[in-house]
Every structure is written in C-alpha cells, then in structure tokens.
Amino acid sequence: MIVWARGFVIACALAAAAVVAPARADDVTVKSVTNGEATISYYAQGKGPLILFIASTGRGTEEFGDLAKDLAERGYRVLRPEPRGIGASKGPMTGVSFHEFANDFAAVIRAEGGNAIVAGHAYGGWIARTLATDHPELTRGVVLVAAGASKWPKELSEAITMINDPASTREQRLAGLRLAFFAKGNDPTAWLDGWHGDVTTSQREAGKATKRADWWAAGKAPILDLQGGADPFRPAESRNELKAEFGDRVTVAVIDNASHALPAEKPAETAKAIADWADRLGK
Predict the structure, then answer these.
(1) What is the rounded CA–CA span in Å between residue 118 and residue 241?
(2) Tally of CA atoms within 13 A in the half-sphere of 177 that contains its CB
(3) How much of the chain, in percent, has pLDDT values that exceed 70?
C-alpha cells in the first residue's frame, strides 16, 4: 500500500511538471483561424509578447524557422501565418485588397490574445503597415524588414516576375536572385524554390486595388526600418527616407552584407535587431 501511494505521488508530480514546463523555443505548433471566407494556417512557437511575421511577395514563412527560434529564445511568442494560397491557407485570391490580407493576420493576433509587433518582409511590410492602420489596437509596433524605397528600378520588379515564371531557366532565375535579392557572396540557391506564381499575381493585383495613402504611414505605431546594406530596393541615399517623413516614430538599422532577402541571408542578425528594438518597447 505504501509503495503504491509513493508511486502515485511521483506520477502526479511528474504530470504536474509536464503541465508547467515552459515551451521550448523550437517547439512549433500549427494552428489556424478563419476570417470570413478565408482560413489562415500559421506556425506558433515560444512564450511571451507576440511577434507576427508576414512573408514577402509570393513566398511563405516556413523558411524563417531559424529566425523564429532565435526570437522565441529571446522571450517572444512568434507567429508565422501563411498567406492565402500557400500551405493550408486559403481564401479568395481575386477581388481583394491589402485590407483583406491585413484582416487575415489580424484574426491570428486576436486568436492569440493581446496585441503584436508586426514584422513584414519586403512586400509583407505593406501588409504590416495596413494592419497597423486598420487595427491599431492590435499593433504594438511595426518592423519593416528589407522594405523598398518609395521608388526603385523597374528591372527589380521584372526580376521577380521572371523568377516566378516556370519557363525561366535555372541560370536566369539565379541571375535574378543575385540581382534583386542576395548580396555578393551569399548563396541564393535555396530561393530557387518556394515561389508561388499565383500568390504573387494575387498580391500584385491587391496592391493595385489599394490606395497607397491607406497604408503608407502604418497608423501611428513605432517603426523599426531594418535594411540590408546591399539591398538594391533600398539604396544608401534612401536610408532615412521614412525617418525624414515620420520622425521619432522610426528607428533605422542596417545589417551589412545583406540584400532584399535579408531574413534568409542573415537570420540571426535579423532576429537580434528585432528583439533588441522590441525589448526597448517594453514587455
């Protein structure tokens, strides 16, 4: 009887420990939410204040696992929702604007509770700014990861179109990646895959259907303008473009030897810059 009781107590203690054990930074859960006709699937990991990451044109967020793990280790809960048309995320792809896409990600924040720092990579920064404008109560801050300047050379947009074209050769696509996305010496081959042409088309059409004034200012949220030092979409003369317009709301940080694929080229440095800035906002 005593032996049984002792075993019962030990089993209960182990069960209790399992319940209260903190989540590991590399423990990833796949969850989903609905927004009207759309279903949005997302990765969630870590524990703490929310950071939601929005992917760039035609790409998903699964590839930013290392970055998410680093942020989780810094004490944040990282959410990586996939846009409509990637993975299990689905919903109308035509007749929509940035506002519908922002609502998708707002639904993720609501499901998790509280508010979030919203980090958008390249094109994703436009949606992050739309979310901050449309849902200020859900947005604690905005991180623009490799955001383009107000204007950039047409050849960079043409490179994205070519990379998404299945008729393009491997050599052509590698040349486009080196031109538009990867700094000299950084290996672009991982980005030969992971493109979704139908998603790129949908996102571009949504951009045409949205007024720039609807999202440009990112509401009144604090902004981290995180740039790649070799990003052709953001040449040196445009470094302080946003800060000149929005003043002390904007913090500018530059990561050397990185281009437009910044979070893929420099995941550890990108995570550190985001976490350092987020820490200053307070937890």
Answers:
(1) 20
(2) 24
(3) 92
> How far is the CA of 143 from the CAs of 72, 99, 127, in angstroms?
16, 18, 11
Distance (Å) of CA 83 to CA 52, 72, 89, 189: 12, 22, 6, 23
Query: What residues in the chain have per-residue pLDDT under 70?
Result: 1-23, 283
Distance CA 71, CA 51 (A): 8
Which SS3 state, helix, strand or coil, does residue 123 take? Answer: helix
Paired strand residues for 224: 143, 251
Element (H, E) at 10: helix 2-20
Q: Are 32 and 40 in contact (CB under 8 A)?
A: yes
68-to-12, 27, 80, 271 alpha-carbon distances in Å: 33, 11, 8, 7
The domains of the chain, with CATH numbers, are 27-281 (3.40.50.1820)
Other CB atoms within a 10 A radius of the CB of residue 30 amount to: 12
Distance, in Å, from the CA atom of 162 to the CA atom of 181, rounded to the nearest integer, reads 13
SS3 content of the chain, % helix, strand, coil (to 5): 45, 20, 35
pLDDT digits (tens, 9 = 90+) for 12-39: 443 443 344 446 888 999 999 999 999 9
Q: In terms of residues, how long is the chain?
A: 283
| DSSP, res 57 | T
What pLDDT sits at residue 6?
Answer: 45
Pairing of strands 29-35, 38-45: antiparallel
